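PROTOCOL LOG
Step 1. Enter all chains and additional molecules of the complex.
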Amino acid sequence: MADTERRYSRDHEWVRIEGNEAFIGITEFAQSQLGDIVYVELPEVSSNIEKDEVVCAVESVKTAADIISPVSGKIIAVNDELEDQPELINEDPYAAWIMQVELSDPSEFNELMNEADYSTYCENEE
Amino acid sequence: MKRTPIYNAHVELGARMIDFGGWEMPVQYSGILEEHNKVRNSAGLFDVSHMGEIIIEGNDALLFADYLVTNDLSDMKYGDVIYSPMCYENGGCVDDILVYCFGNDRILLAVNASNTEKDFLWIKESSNGFDVNIHNVSEEYAQLAIQGPDAQRILQGLAKTDLSEIRFFKFRENVMVGGVPSLVSRTGYTGEDGFEIYLAADKGSSIFRMLLEAGGEDILPCGLGARDTLRMESCLPLYGHELSPEITPMQAGLGYFVKITDRPFQGKDVLAIETECGPERKIAGFEMVDRGIARNGYPVFDPEGNEIGYVTSGGFCPSISKNMGLALVESSFADNGTPILIGIRKSMAKAITVRKPFYKKKYKK
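Step 2. Run joint prediction.
Step 3. Record the structure below.
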């Protein structure tokens, strides 16, 4: 059964795991801070990434934001839909995943913030 | 941080505020794309009260202003507005400004917000030998810009003067706007028809709200985000990007606003040579061929990988749905249709130089 719990990084990425795989995107807070998203630079499939590594970027009209991986592993898929419809991230950031990662260290997920902690974290950011 | 007289209205309207050169200004309200499109399709209202206003008074006011700027002011009459770069002796730009003429003895300069103090000192230093008094009156004024095809109709609803009588780059004083005497010029920074309104600082907020109410569904308050996308796709220069102390007006492609006539003006010697020989580098417009967005400061290369300049402004242009930009490059690469490369993070993205502006301006002349 799919695990639907989402966890959050300090850089405003969300992670949802299904088995040993993680879907990663940016949070509601991140999309609202960025504003209209007009370009998503997707990472390369099958590249290996480390936790806290800059893997790609999301760009709004105003600015470019690095996507910093909250977990380590291998990228097994990217969300191609975002190439032509980057605005999907604005519309529903938790549905518009950016990359799917096969986890090399599943314990990293548990170190991320839960919903309540992240919510408090965002309040302090504003 | 400094705040304009309209700050409270921005907060009430839910604007996201940012630090813009020491000013706490709205970057967006509903969203940059929505605000941008509103200006192109109907109307947008901008608080530009952070802009500076400097008055030059005295017998030599016009003569002195003509010495300060690169454009030719000698034929200016009451009610005229002229855009001009203002240069150092080495041809670099102090600022780019609007000059309002009230007669030979009174001139108003509208200057960029973050340059106000610098400009004021520069103008005072330059005034030796001229019979003038110079005043920085920036804090006395609120300044609003109403821009877009519906701007005139909406402003007319609150104004006593027939606005159709104010032609492109002309102004009127004492136009009653919502009962407040205002200076109104048909000028702007969006590539659309529209007006800039100067009024007493303490009346700014109420007139800002009245204009939004008068415009109803046809107007949106617009922030600095939309102001930037609108000016960029119209290829209007932004000081600190396409113009700076290191960039001359000729390099910025503003040669039209540099008039080498008999009169003396600051920077004339250098600019005359540059006019004759052509500048060594130029601002070129470009369109991204590869995916990616070029941003201010990114390096520009020729197809062989030699660095030839840098991006001065870049981004997504909403009106044409393309990623475009302006870059200061060696002149031999500035002709339209030249392939170039932009260094975007770790990759090299293909782009091609294109004609400016990217969006055809829709001024009513």
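Step 4. Note key features.
The domain at 280-354 of chain B is CATH 2.40.30.110 (Elongation Factor Tu (Ef-tu); domain 3).
The radius of gyration of chain B is 20 Å.
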